Amino acid sequence: MSVEAAKRAAARAAVAAHFSPSYTYVGIGSGTTIIYVHDLPPHHTIHFVPTGYQSRQVILKAGLTPTLFDHLPDAVVLDVAFDGADEVDEELNCIKGGGACLFQEKLVAERARRFVCVADYRKSQPRLLTSWPTIPIEVAPIAVSPVLRSLKALGSPDPIVRPGALDKSGPLKTDQDFFIIDAPFPTLLTTKDVSAGAKGDGSDGKWEVQALSRAIKAITGVLEVGLFAGSDGDEIAAKGGKAGGQKPVAVYFGMEDGSVVKRTQGGDEKLA
Ligand SMILES: O=C(CO)[C@H](O)[C@H](O)COP(=O)(O)O
């Protein structure tokens, strides 16, 4: 099965399980997989909340109505948010930002009752930074040099500012007019690794996902980190919260053999 067919199969399974025509607000992320999420059952009054320029164009092209994040009334919680990912580990931590939209993607994911990811088989790995090489980090242009130095001090061997499409036009600019730094690190540890005795605090060069995310976020000049980790919407709801999770409640992987694998905290399940 082609990668595109795998993406479509993942999106169909995610929509079948997590979309309802009765919803009012639905987040729609960025990337090439999310395009297939627009194949929705009939619905009438849903506001689709984009995660940036590309996402807004995709919503418009599908004939749907975009509602910008900063137009949402304060009390609104999105019923669900769908998005892609660059890599997902076995604990459902994600790397995002391959398309440079990580800041608004995190805003939208955290505003949703449930965040659901769609991806093809290449994105599924036991640990982050196994196949995807770097962590995307959105940075204020004025702060690029000190942020690069701080990332090296945290153990990133060779962080680079992501170039734009043309050499002569300088670095790529995000929807916020910021830059993206792509920072490689050694493969990240899971909480299971830490429970099994690994330190995960970077002192031996190895970081656990959330510990590294916090350390990068604490650097002055960093707007957001492309690591989506911590609690998911269901864990937050169990504690009485309405939204706030960065981690997906489920990830749907379209597989090479045509099947779809659904990953949740309970493990992986092969769907038909
Ligand atoms: O995080 C993202 C953009 O910033 C995308 O969701 C991620 O890059 C996945 O994209 P694709 O579906 O094209 O593989």
TrEMBL record:
Pathway: Carbohydrate degradation; pentose phosphate pathway; D-ribose 5-phosphate from D-ribulose 5-phosphate (non-oxidative stage): step 1/1. GO terms for cellular component: cytoplasm. InterPro entries: NagB/RpiA_transferase-like (IPR037171), Ribose5P_isomerase_type_A (IPR004788). Its EC number is 5.3.1.6. It catalyses: aldehydo-D-ribose 5-phosphate = D-ribulose 5-phosphate. It is an enzyme of class 5 (isomerase). The keyword Isomerase applies. GO terms for molecular function: ribose-5-phosphate isomerase activity. GO terms for biological process: D-ribose metabolic process; pentose-phosphate shunt, non-oxidative branch. Keywords: Isomerase. The keyword Isomerase applies. PANTHER family: RIBOSE-5-PHOSPHATE ISOMERASE (PTHR11934:SF0). NCBIfam families: rpiA (TIGR00021). Belongs to the ribose 5-phosphate isomerase family. This is Ribose-5-phosphate isomerase. It comes from Trichodelitschia bisporula.
